[in-house]
Amino acid sequence: MGSMFFEGNGGSFIGAFKDRIHHILEANGAFFDGSEKKGHAQKNQFISFNTLQPYPEGKNKGLYPTIMIQP
Q1: Domain extents for the chain?
Q2: Which residues touch 63 (CB under 8 Å, ≥6 apart)?
Q3: CA 54 – CA 58 distance, rounded (Å)
Q4: Residues 34-61: pLDDT tens digits?
């Protein structure tokens, strides 16, 4: 592109880049077939998060707030 040029072994660069992209796709579950080759996307499907967090500071630091859930 423009005045850019490449020096070195282009084949080695392309091979390493291709391997890296394949690893990223594999790690993220792009090749998951429904039972094998799970990636991050499939392993984290049943994760849950606390929407209530403990107090970050003050006398209640580390404690969770009291919550009452009523129908």
Answers
A1: 9-71
A2: 54, 55
A3: 11
A4: 888 788 777 766 667 767 888 899 999 9
